[in-house]
Each structure stands twice: as structure tokens, then as C-alpha cells.
């Protein structure tokens, strides 16, 4: 079990950038694979980026080349750098463990809106 608090969302123009942060609590954070998920209205929540404890990363095709996930284990924090943002990136972004099993516990997320 881990508590997660997301921040950094906001309104940005197409082509702009945002950096999201996720502060986690829990003694097992350093060994967890962590991910950023997003959910747009009318769509399922999807995993867009993941990072394993050793630093290996994975990205959804829709964000590959534009988003970068990173982590600072000393600060119990996961980041998502989002560049070249598009309107279709508009969603509520959540962080959580990157697991194959269904996740039932989520934080409040942070809203990202890309609009001119």
C-alpha cells in the first residue's frame, strides 16, 4: 500500500509543456514499478508511461517521443515531463504502481487541459 499525491497539471496551449509530479509514501517505493495513467472523458483509464525500479521505461505509442517518465527514489517522487502537448492529451493524470493486476485504489489525479 502506498499513498500518492499528484500535482503539476494545468491549462497549456498545444505544443506546450508541463511537468507532473507524484509524491509517494510507503517503505516499498524504491522497489515498485511506477506508472502514469490518464483518463479522458468517455474513455478508459490507460497507462501512458512506466518506470521500473532499475530505471527501465515504457511508453504508450501515443506519447512516445514526447513524454518522459523519471523517478527520484530519495524523494519518493515520480515525474512525467510532457512536451509537444496535443489536445488529445487532455485528461486527468494519475500515478500508481505499474501492475498487470487491476488497481482499485487511486488518488485524486491532476487535470491536464491542452487547448488554444
- What is the molecular shape? globular
Provide the gyration radius in Å: 13 Å
Category from helices, strands and their pairing:
mainly beta
Helix content: under 10%
Low-confidence stretches: none
Report the major sheet. Answer: 6 strands, mixed
Order of helical and strand elements: EEEEEEEEEE
The overall average pLDDT, rounded, is: 94
Number of strands: 10
N-to-C CA distance: 39 Å
Number of helices: 0
Query: How much beta, percentage-wise?
Result: over 45%
Strand order of the largest sheet: 2-10-9-4-5-6
Oligomer: single chain
Please tell me about this protein's structure.
It is a single chain. By secondary structure, the protein is mainly beta. It is 0% helix and 47% strand. It contains no helices and ten strands. It has strands at residues 3-7, 10-12, 18-25, 34-39, 46-51, 57-59, 67-72, 77-82, 91-97, 110-114. It has a six-stranded mixed β-sheet, with no helix packed on it. Strand 4 (34-39) and strand 5 (46-51) form a beta hairpin. The chain is globular, with a radius of gyration of 13 Å. 29% of the residues are buried. The mean pLDDT is 94.
Amino acid at each position: 500500500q502506498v499513498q500518492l499525491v499528484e500535482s503539476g497539471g494545468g491549462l497549456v496551449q498545444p505544443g506546450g509543456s508541463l511537468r507532473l509530479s507524484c509524491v509517494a509514501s510507503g517503505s516499498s517505493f524504491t522497489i515498485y514499478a511506477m506508472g502514469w495513467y490518464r483518463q479522458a472523458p468517455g474513455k478508459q483509464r490507460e497507462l501512458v508511461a512506466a518506470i521500473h525500479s532499475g530505471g527501465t521505461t515504457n511508453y504508450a505509442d501515443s506519447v512516445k517521443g514526447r513524454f518522459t517518465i523519471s523517478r527520484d527514489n530519495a524523494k519518493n517522487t515520480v515525474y512525467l515531463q510532457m512536451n509537444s502537448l496535443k489536445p488529445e492529451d487532455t485528461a486527468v493524470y494519475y500515478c500508481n504502481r505499474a501492475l498487470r493486476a487491476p488497481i482499485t485504489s487511486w488518488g485524486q489525479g491532476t487535470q491536464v487541459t491542452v487547448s488554444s
